[in-house]
Give the backbone structure.
Amino acid sequence: MNSVNIRINGKDIICPEGANVMHVAIENGFDIPNLCYDQRLSPTGACRLCIVEMEGRPGVHTSCTMKAGEGLSIVTESDKLSALRKSTLELIFSEHKATCTSCDREGACSLQDYAYRYGAAEDRYPSIVKGGHSDNYTEGGIAIGYDVEKCIRCMRCVKICEEVQGAEAITLDGRSGNVVVNTPFSMLLTDSSCEMCGQCVDTCPTGALYAKAAKGKGRVRTMKKVRTTCLYCGVGCQLDLNIGADGKLVKVTSEPGVIPNDGNTCVKGRFGFDFIHRDERLTMPLIREGDAFREASWDEALDLVATRFSGIKEKNGSEALAGLTSAKSGNEDNYIMQKFVRTQFGNNNIDHCARLCHASTVAGLARAFGSGAMTNSIDEFSDTPLIFVIGSNTTENHPVMGIKIRKAVAEGKTKLLVADPRKISLTDIAHMHLQQKPGSDVALINAMMYTIIDEKLHDRDFIKSRTEDYERMEAAVMKCPPEFAEKVSGVPAEDIRAAARLYAAAESASIVYSMGITQHTTGTDNVLSLANMAMLTGNVGKPFAGVNPLRGQNNVQGACDMGGLPDVYPGYQKVHLPEAKAKFEKAWGVPLSDKPGLTVNEIMHGVGSGKIKGLYVFGENPVLSDPDTNEVVKSLKKADFLVVQDIFLTETAELADVVLPARSFAERDGTFTNTERRVQMYREAVAAPGESKPDWEIITGVANRMGADWNYNSASEIMDEIAAVTPIYGGISYERITDVGLQWPCPDKEHKGTAVLHQGKFSRGLGKFHPVDYLPQQELPDEDYPLILTTGRMLQHWHTGTMTRKSEVLHGIVPEGHIQISPADAGRLGIVSEDMVKVSTRRGEIRIAADVTDRMKEGVVFLTFHFKESPANALTIAALDPIAKIPEFKACAVKVEKY
Amino acid sequence: MSEVNLDAARDILGRIDLSEKLTNGKIKPDYLIPLLQDIQEEYGYLPRPALELISREGGIPLSRIFGVVTFYEQFYLEPRGKHMVKCCRGTACHVKNGAKIASAISDVLGIGEGGTSADGLFTFETVACLGTCFLAPVMMIDESYYGNLEEGDVKSILDRYREGGVK
Ligand code: SF4
Ligand code: SF4
Ligand code: SF4
Ligand code: FES
Ligand code: FES
């Protein structure tokens, strides 16, 4: 883009040609008053406050609709402008009933500020608000309130809902003197297409839109704002926790322009944090006595934990101990936890729930590329020519990433190809939807590659110069023509061909996937297939391309990076390699085991079979999250000594011998690493409940009682140690990531982080093709269990519901689970929506209400695993991927009957 | 609300020329207004179920349809009476007791502003100025003006429409 010279108030500025002048002015520190402007939105030009004078063009002009051209020269303040702004403001007040004295926004309201600045009188013109406009769409609803008397019709809410969120729930209703913001027919937001993201509230320049929970909880200007990283998903949105005078969280706001979410959030980030102040938070250590718990002091609890673990180690050997670390907790906590297991337990029996979501990604991508992480960055999705989403319900599970994709498609910048067994929100806007049967992904991808090779659409230069083992892969693919894949996947061969052409023809194409790909017995194969296809077309190692696993938990990337895995130290340094072992023995000052440890499922089996006597579960809830729950509970009950460290008494904690109360992310400092490998800060914002402590401090307490001598004073110190032993984190320190997080690899203090992996060279040198053959899923439907069950998450809830179900808004919107079933299957079984049904597999059964929807394909049903009343994992199968050991959550045979 | 028969709306949607559709089968936004006009022509107003149908099948968000519908005076979300009664509340009429005329209309028809009488004959609205201030106070029924009104005139005029004296 060309640069041009413009002049603002006599100051020369160079900016891109065509840039929005208001934006340029703000970036250069000029303060042009504005009410309807938001840098994320198309200009409205409605409020006319941003008027400026322009050299060579008489009159005044709105700067928010002005584009920068060579020689443009503007003046932003003059007597004439002030006078005009004053009367504009007075006119605006005729629509806005000035009740600043009782408004929560008082002192932080743009309208009030400008009125003061330009001396505008609030009552110069009589109120033209007709009043008594029929209904208010927020009345009786949850979360969001609308006060029409404070609305200045700037359209920011309507535009953000349409242009950014893509939800199109609200609109301006009416004409001339009688316009209000409304949903169609004044329906409740929960009945409309609203996604409850709260973007409209956040962008409203006055107090017209507000968070109901924040009403009357203090004025904005008296609140303390603490920048933090969202605790829910791997997008890692930057949020501002607004803390009231009583030290409690009042609401969450977000700032446009901030990486990676540009001021956008989803419902969980905006309204999902009230759980931190719940009375059920753990405040004291608990020790089991018979069937009950009693409160204990830290010393007593930690002494007991250390003594019991040491005792088991002495009596049964180190192999009898294991730990589960936490993808919800910070990098520092994970680092300390794995260091604890490796140095104090003396084995590598450390794993976490990444095993259950992306172990196949780590295994597959590491084999193909040498690094098991998202290759590209979130920001690129605004301009990627083609996005192939497979097995990811992005708008619900990685919502802010989802709206980015949705926006790029709406703006015509992106062609979208979706492969998913369900109709999901993205399929509504996709250029093509391939509705494959669960478990048939390899066949589908292989057939796409067959077409690409057959029609010579592959990138021979890339294959030759950047990869190896192409021939073996080609031989495997050539066994899988689209006609074969059609039989297995149910997707017409012609569609497979068309999709292949679309993908191969794009200037650059990015693959986005998630648990629909990974949670299968063929999970690693699925990932390898996608890596194959990207390399086949030269779509790795450049911007707007790549293979992009979306990581589920906020810090699942970090927990893996920190070595919360049985086979690697921090930074994926292999425990069985002598150099790595020697390095960490030196750093940690104790001898280490070079034997890879047990995975989550092996640990659970070990506990069940009595091989593992002592288990330390940190921030995980395997009772709801692991496959085949009934077995998990049975196993855990057999443990000699179970320690659970969490913020609530989870279903798993209820089985523990000792429960240790941890602090939530709002009560301490630390870092999370998001899905694009960006290490970001979360910060202490509110007081911790009771005597709860940061996880790293608790674990350190146990370690020191078992003989270690660790002296950590802060999370920041731990990060320095991490940087010293983890090459990909080498350049990371708290000072460097205060404002914007850094993306690893970041090897040294000067390095600016890496947005795109494998540029010029793969992490492993050459990219490696792997021949992958289609294998059917482990448990195929049969006469007794004729349907395929697939499981997943939904927008409003998180994981096992430990936090989201304690949030009033989130739980209020979706209080209970449903099983989704196609109209055809439902018809045959005589089921209508809201009927109670019995769902059973060979492992268990649950009772749940039905949701009959054409989003499901015949033969497939869908459950989320958020609800303990209807635990999906009582049904799932613990069949494992042979390489990554990930369970097949996404496909098992099931029977549905009317209750 | 009684059931709305959506067959006609479906027909109208079905008639849409392919050139008015986007690649994914959705209707081009530009085509929304003519489509709404056709529906209103058919039903006399825009029944909510018909709008929901357009939204669902045509891929246009309901909020956008609703925004357009409420923006233009020509669109109605409620069934309309056979006759449109407009009473002026402009300044000239106001000075000459226009408000009394409006309340007389309300009384006679038994409905408020914006309402439609139970027999389906009349819809009643007030407007800013009918442009015939020299006749103030004025009301207008369909295309005819009635000026220099006294309160007592209202009932007899409306009765003529009721009895079918005026079509
Ligand atoms: S909460 Fe989000 S989706 Fe709902 S109306 Fe506001 S911007 Fe739209
Ligand atoms: S509610 Fe707020 S954002 Fe929406 S139009 Fe009114 S003032 Fe603007
Ligand atoms: S998209 Fe993810 S990170 Fe962002 S607010 Fe929602 S849950 Fe939090
Ligand atoms: S900010 Fe430019 S017109 Fe409102
Ligand atoms: S004021 Fe009534 S017709 Fe003009």
Remarks:
- Residues A 230, 232-233, 235-237, 261, 265-266, 268-269, 399-400 surround iron/sulfur cluster (ligand 3) (CB under 6 Å).
- The helical segments of chain B are 7-14, 32-43, 48-58, 62-71, 91-95, 98-109, 151-162.
- Strands of chain B lie at 83-88, 122-127, 139-141, 144-146.
- Chain B has a mean pLDDT of 83.
